[in-house]
Write the structure tokens for this entry.
Amino acid sequence: MVEIDAALVRTLVAAQFPQWAHLPVAAVARQGWDNRTFRVGGDLLVRLPSAEGYASAIAKEDRCLPILAGRLPLPVPEPVATGAPGAGYPYPWSVRRWLPGDTLAAADDVDRTAVARGLGALLAALRRVPTAGGPAAGRHSAFRGCHPSVYGDDVEQALERLGDRVDGDACREVWARALTSAWPGAPVWFHGDVSAGNLLVVDGRLAAVIDFGTCGVGDPACDLVPAWTWCVGAERAVFRDAVALDADSWRRARGWALWKALISVAYGGEAPEEPLRVVAEVLADPVV
């Protein structure tokens, strides 16, 4: 991981975009893993990949975001400029227009039913965007948009590692059901990382979706995991109805949610409570 701080951002901006050199630079309060994010002035955001594996997403977002902008019911980040390596920082970096709001993960007083409905409608609209120019799912998307079977070895190894910490038989049954179908139509757009940290909320409702670094075109089932990671109870039915996908897609989605939760418990460190909760939700509720 590269050491990234506000001083580095000020140096890079001053050298490559001197028109913004006078603007204050401040780290955003809640950082992601793939990128380090800094606000520059009142209207700009700088994002710097934290490691080499995330750097290629800069060019992909620069290409894909203009395709998606204006075709979705919510704003997406607007590319303003692309920076080059410099000042000891080895990767390209991006300048985006600032989008207001708190992340769904941090927001208070959220209208959860409205968010579930709005998120489903967003994903349905994303599937309708023409795919010309969109990258086919693959390594660049961490294989989101591909068939969940790509992570079959991960699931089995995680289950072996976890032993009786989870219900292995029930997990294997869910996983087997996830593998019995494939996306039957032409590839469609997917986001690839629909997490509460990548959704912005204003006044309790969805206001924007960010971080398209794992987006592409393929099977949209991977985008349905918020049904178990964020939705609870009746919110799942609201989300399901707004998404408007078939039962086979939901079985694959359940597999995606199970895979991520299992590997997070097995290899994610010393805070397994949340992924264990997701495993329990996945096992308890097929949604369809």
Observations:
- Strands lie at 25-27, 35-40, 44-49, 79-83, 93-97, 102-103, 188-190, 199-202, 205-209, 216-218.
- The longest helix spans residues 247-267.
- The two ends are 41 Å apart (CA to CA).
